[in-house]
From TrEMBL:
PROSITE patterns: ASP_PROTEASE, PEPTIDASE_A1. Belongs to the peptidase A1 family. It comes from the Eukaryota. One of its GO terms (cellular component) is lysosome. Disulfide bonds join C119-C126, C283-C286. GO terms for molecular function: aspartic-type endopeptidase activity. This is GL15694. InterPro entries: Aspartic_peptidase_A1, Aspartic_peptidase_AS, PEPTIDASE_A1, Peptidase_aspartic_dom_sf. Transmembrane segments: none annotated. The keyword Disulfide bond applies. The active site is at D106, D291. One of its GO terms (biological process) is proteolysis.
Length: 401
């Protein structure tokens, strides 16, 4: 039955194009406070794996290998914005007529949620952002089920709703998402995005809600169940990078993609042959997760201690700092993934802050209690990354610029 559906999609979409989603970048100043807050959020994000590191049941969509392979670039792209080099976001709309929202495209989660017009007037984060008004949409379908997602300083809570969700002109019918009536503490105040659009497997979706990307493909809106990210680390507010839906954009790459299979289908998790720094092997046969929803580089506790010692970092008020004069002389951190070496320069794994005439250099390595690595935008921003549901694999390639 599924193969028949795929065939019908192929016939209907022979002329489909790759979708490019624009990523925007906020000009907000990044601070040490933001980093500490992100560490807390990241720890809660992976709380289930920290407490009980188990393999998820195979609940991914049954895409198999029967999607079409075309010689022409049949995919879609959206440009992204980058706020404080901590998160990348783009615009979507919900409802009829459309209501517009900026959302983080997060490969480390699987739910879509946005603020609700029903939120309290005392909810600062909600009042600062665009709010979904269900009564103003002719395609809204009520859903009485409550939802709650845990973050670093509390929970986003509200209820589920169903409506048309449009990404770069692609209208997803009957998409279920969360209307947030309460948002935690300061986690979502003074940020450039309104909500989050998760792009992981359905197995980690709260309430088992079908993620938007599943429906993009299953409703025949894109040709292939794959998407790619180009995250511009030093981009402008208008040129923060691109999210590509439904294919691969080879113009963004300076070489071939190196693919590795997803080893745990929930997050985008895969095996790394080894990670080394200046000849010192930090891990051999380790696991990593590609997470566009964080800027940090999380590693197991023993490695966290070791790498910060190697780079000469000193722990001050919970963060590790190096003398800025040593930054240019620090070696690269090398990741051997699928037999290919991907280097991370010190300028990527050290954050430089300028505050009231004083410059400080802080390590981006963090320990959140996992026995695997979380490769955030610190790593992903150096390479083009492809996420392939069809063949359950992740690919990396050097950037063309």
């Amino acid at each position: 039955m599924f193969k028949l559906f795929v065939l019908l999609c192929v016939l209907a979409l022979a002329s489909a194009e790759l979708q490019r989603i624009k990523i925007h970048k906020s000009e907000h100043k990044r601070s040490r406070h933001h980093v500490r807050q992100e560490v807390r959020s990241l720890r809660h994000k992976y709380q289930q794996l920290i407490e009980n590191y188990v393999v998820y049941d195979y609940g991914q969509p049954d895409y198999g290998n029967d999607y079409p392979s075309n010689s022409e670039p049949d995919y879609t792209t959206e440009e992204l914005g980058n706020s404080m080099n901590m998160y990348y976001y783009g615009q979507i709309s919900i409802g009829t007529p459309p209501q517009y929202f900026n959302v983080v495209f997060d490969t480390g989660s699987s739910n879509l949620w946005i603020p609700s017009a029903q939120c309290l007037s005392t909810d600062v984060a909600c009042q600062q952002h665009n709010q979904y008004n269900a009564s103003a949409s002719s395609t809204y379908v009520a859903n009485s089920q409550n939802f709650s997602i845990q973050y670093g300083t509390g929970s986003v809570t509200g209820y589920l709703a169903t409506d048309t969700v449009t990404i770069n002109g692609l209208a997803i019918a009957n998409q279920t998402f969360g209307e947030a009536v309460s948002q935690p503490g300061s986690s979502f105040t003074d940020v450039a995005f309104d909500g989050i659009l998760g792009m992981g497997y359905q197995t980690i979706a709260v309430d088992s809600v079908v993620p938007p990307f599943y429906n993009l493909y299953e409703q025949g809106l894109i040709d292939e169940p794959t998407f790619g990210f180009y995250l511009a680390r030093n981009g402008s507010s208008e040129e923060g990078g691109q999210l590509l839906l439904g294919g691969v954009d080879e113009t963004l790459m300076a070489g071939d993609l190196t693919y590795v299979p997803v080893s745990q289908e929930g997050y985008w998790q895969f095996s790394v042959n080894n990670i080394s720094w200046n000849g010192t092997v930090l891990c051999d046969g380790c696991q990593a997760i590609a997470d566009t929803g964080t800027s940090l580089l999380a590693c197991p506790q023993a490695v966290y201690t070791q790498i910060n010692q190697l780079i000469g970092a000193v722990l001050i008020e919970g963060s590790n700092y190096i003398p800025c004069a040593t930054l240019d002389s620090l070696p690269v951190l090398s990741f051997n993934i699928g037999g290919t070496t991907f280097d991370l320069p010190a300028s990527a794994y050290i954050s430089v802050f300028h505050d009231e005439g004083y410059t400080s250099c802080m390590s981006t390595f963090t320990d959140i209690g996992t026995d695997f690595w979380v490769l955030g935008d610190v790593f992903l921003g150096q390479y083009y990354t492809q996420f392939d549901f069809g063949q359950n694999r992740v690919g990396f390639a050097p950037l063309s610029n």
